[in-house]
Amino acid sequence: MPDGQVLELAGLTKRFGAVSAVDDLTARIEPGQVTGFLGPNGAGKTTSLRMLLGLVRPTAGTATIGGKRYVDLENPLQSVGAALEASSFHPGRSAAKHLTAYAQAAGLPRARVDEVLGLVGLADVAGRRVGGFSLGMRQRLGLATALLGDPGVLVLDEPSNGLDPEGIRWMRSLLRHLAEEGRTVLISSHLLAEVQQTVDALLIISRGRLVFQGGIEDLADPDEFSTVVDSTDRPALSRVLDEQGIEYQLLRNGFTIRHHDPIGIGALAASNGVALSNLQSKGASLEDIFLELVSGVRVHASAGAPTSQDEVPDAATPNDPSAVTEPPVAQPVVAESAASTPSDDPGDADDPRPSTALVAVMAPPRAASRVASAPAAESPRRSYAVASTGVIDIVPRPDAPAHENEEGQR
Ligand SMILES: Nc1ncnc2c1ncn2[C@@H]1O[C@H](COP(=O)(O)OP(=O)(O)OP(=O)(O)O)[C@@H](O)[C@H]1O
Ligand SMILES: [Mg+2]
């Protein structure tokens, strides 16, 4: 197995006419872990992955795999396994034929086809035409294609789409296993809940811009957690809290105490002989935090710069005559990822965008040219700014030098 490689996105930008699909995305994806690439529909996930795989030419910036652009890889199929569009297989071919064609093109032994078919649970339907495959079966075939060359890097676009619960669990353990072997595993999803148990690291984008990068444990600030405690003898409990100078809010479900964990509060009550009827930890769910990040209500330091979505054109509609559809600049060597067009792109057909009214009012104005994102090596700090408070805890870095785009062109 080839080694896992670092994937590096540096100032990656893609504009389709007036549509800013990916905007100065700088991020680093490490080997040996599963990284979730998250964002709502139309956020720019597929476009970013297509740039990484040399299928779309960046407007600016670079995307590299182990320091090389995809097009410069010596053995692409053995280096990077990718599955972008599960529905783009030739419908008349059987699963085995599809894989055999790829294996032959890459000089891989025929036996590898049977191996990967077994690995993804498609051995029984290997001879069936792909046109009759269910969505989940197509996903499995996409993964089989990606795994064919036993690559050190796996890039999977929404791999859980269409899988049943058992399939999702199977995919989860397979991806974890592949990462534990040292591979780089990057999976996209528009649902945090779908990948929460699978990923170690997260990259979250919204409207083409980075809004978070870091470990999943860095998403929530520990200070956001509070303890809810109650007793049948509320006067006794409030007396103990008052004596300690601990502030609380008495609500119907008991005393809510911010910045204190249940262990300390429980011990305090016990040492004062107050019997508790309830003691629990409360905090914003990861899903809440995710939604706040992508809507711009919450800003995280790891994004490196405040978002200013008022400058992002809202013209990301399929009928926008200025939106330019580009053909892929290189033939996909890995998965059969047909060039998506505005009409076949789900992000195009339906482009639900989170409300950003609050952000447009609260976010500080962006400099005329781009503000650089956080340097990849910088670890996320646990500081937050919630736009509704009017406090933005992020200092924009000086303007990045203009992207020359030389490396992105072929
Ligand atoms: N070939 C294209 N021509 C014009 N606009 C495009 C093209 N491809 C993508 N876009 C636009 O770029 C933006 C990002 O699309 P992209 O498909 O990358 O989003 P996504 O995050 O993958 O969304 P989803 O979760 O729906 O798959 C969207 O506004 C989309 O309409
Ligand atoms: Mg997509």
Descriptive terms for the model:
Alpha-Beta Plaits; 4-stranded antiparallel beta sheet; Rossmann fold; 26% helix; 6-stranded mixed beta sheet; 15 strands; single chain; disordered C terminus; 12 helices; alpha/beta; binds magnesium ion; 410 residues; binds adenosine-5'-triphosphate
Q: Ligands bound here?
A: adenosine-5'-triphosphate, magnesium ion
Shape: elongated
Order of helices and strands: EEEHEHEHHHEHEHEEEHEEHEHEHHE
Low-pLDDT residue spans: 307-410
Strand-pairing-aware structural class: alpha/beta
What is the name of the CATH class of the largest domain? Alpha Beta
Considering the protein shown, what is the CATH homologous superfamily of the largest domain? P-loop containing nucleotide triphosphate hydrolases
Distance between the termini: 29 Å
Determine the fraction of residues in helical runs and give it as a percent range.
25-40%
Strand content: 15-25%
By CATH, the architecture of the largest domain is named 3-Layer(aba) Sandwich
CATH topology of the largest domain: Rossmann fold
- Number of self-contained structural domains: 2
Q: Main β-sheet, in a few words?
A: 6 strands, mixed
Q: Largest sheet, order of strands side by side?
A: 5-6-7-3-8-9
Q: Averaged pLDDT, please?
A: 77
Biased composition (Basic and acidic residues): 400-410
Pfam family, one: ABC_tran
Biased composition (Low complexity): 359-385
Keywords: ATP-binding, Nucleotide-binding, Transport
